[in-house]
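Standup, Tuesday
Yesterday: got the pipeline producing structure tokens again.
Today: sanity-check two examples.
Blockers: none.

Example 1:
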Amino acid sequence: MALAGESVSVDAARRIALNAQGFGEARPRRADVRHLRQVVGRLGVLQLDSVNVLVRSQYLPGFSRVGDYSRATLDRMVAQGELFEYFWAHKASLLPVQGYPLVRWRMRAVERQRWDEPPAPEVSVPWAVVVGMRRLSVERPGLVGEVLARIADGGPMTAGEASPDGVRRKRSDPDPDPGTGTMWNWQDAKIAVEYLFCAGQLAIAGRRNFERVYDLSERVLPDAVLRAPELTADEARRELVRSSARNLGIATAKELCGASGHYPLPVATARQVIGELVDGGELVPVRVDGVKQQSYRWSTATDRAVEARALLSPFDTLIWNRDRTERLFDFFYRISIYTPAAQRVHGYYVLPFLLGDRLVARVDLKADRKNSTLLGPTVTAEPGAPDFAEPLAAELELMAGWLGLEKVQMPGKSAQGS
């Protein structure tokens, strides 16, 4: 079917994306749980990450949109079952608990998987689970059941506590599952609990120093959610793509559900679901100037003017697709935390600074908690950026207060982008 549709300028597409992500609205005077719920509902997902040089990544999207709010509010939403932890695409994330039925088909696919065979397309688990379960199903076929029984009897526990024999490999020991990489060199009990988590038998009851604590799903998730009717795979995929389209506002098929898209799906499935949403009038085919691929606009998305001021987490859903970020904002962005120090250009934990509807700078930030200071050793302006010194200073003061820091220190060099 020939598509194409109306022409949309890149500027309008960028405003559509920003409005869909909640940047078109003024921040409230005093943000509370209602505002945070609106943020989560709009984004659909808060990505988790272990880096804490500034603040854990799941807290930043709320601050970017509503300003100073209590991080304890988000913690309570998790503790009270409003949010649950699972994988959005391949990313460990917090999701609204109403979305639990949308991922149960993936859990069932993990349960059905035979590990002596290649993973089915719908089985989305860490590679360490695939390789580890392949080995454990032969070497220790009873381990998963032993781990599950230990948690059922003992209550919430970490992977190490769930080990039935307490035996742990040393770092110097050879990796029993070659090819997983050093960061995935998991203990056997860790492979077992992660499999059970992916299969929905265990859920994340909390974290200790960012280490997952596992418990039976029925002891973590609300009964009403667990008893909710299960969706078919087709129904769930349709709703997942619908959610992605609503969250993004405007996107290509690849950005919606390609291999590195907002919610990856097999190509044939993605085409079918997008076609159904187009036929139903929920997705509108459009042509974005300069973009060769067919784009789609969410039917109720708006391109009203945006007057935002925000520092963005590297894991913010607005910018986590780096190719889309470059296309909409003319902003080439890569996270630097995995880059050797000598090769870093803009700093270590670099946050893009959004002013109006443009990304105007990159700000390297660190929370020096010992000295109660927000440090910004490097600020890099984008070529042709307007003067942003005052709005950036105001945003940094707001962030420092939000983090409970007394001072802002920006003594470092100020570099001009190239």
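Example 2:
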Amino acid sequence: MRQIIAMGGGGFSMEPENLLLDQYILSQVKKEVPKVCFVATASGDQSGYIERFYNAFKSLPCEPTHLSLFEPEFENLEEFVLEQDIIYVGGGNTRNLLLLWKEWGLDLVLKKAYEKGVILAGLSAGSICWFEEGLTDPLNAPLYKLDCLGFLKGSNCPHYDGENKRRPAYHQLIAKGEIKEGYGVDDGVALHFKNEGLSCVVSSRVEAKAYFVKEVDGRAIETEIDSVYLGDKK
């Protein structure tokens, strides 16, 4: 089965005291101790970010490792990736991530891993990258459409509730037909795709939501998608 778990935001880097989404990702592997590899390309392999990953995932039942393109330690990129159970991609600059992946051929390796059944996951840039298109935000500049890997159809807008520019910019681009219809995803929410179809939506926060947004008569119309809260509702 091919699986992608795309988070609007959340996980260890945004909710260090709430690892419900990270635990959900690990639970999709039918092993007691799955291998999970963190890819921090979008942040320039920032050492502090990688350290936070290890601090969080060492407390969970898994075998954590990371993949760096700035200070590579692997001997064979493809072999290293294909031996993982989960590839977990961090946030940062999506354009830089895509350029570096293509330069290294990591985009093709990840496609092979996806077809083999390695779970692809991530937040923000690590969520946008799997879709045909994404809404990205360069520093101090308007948000714009970015062509991505296209493992999943449509577009993706993370941080839908967390950054006030996101929702209106996404609506505007969809209404004008400048970006494909797709998903607006709040922080703390994950879209779980199986074989390219949306299987379920899960959240680490009771109030967090995901929406499908499409153009109707020159307007952007969003429809809330039913979601499952992963925590204790009491």
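Quick observation on example 2: Residues 47-57 form the longest helix (11 residues). The first strand starts at residue 3 and ends at 7.
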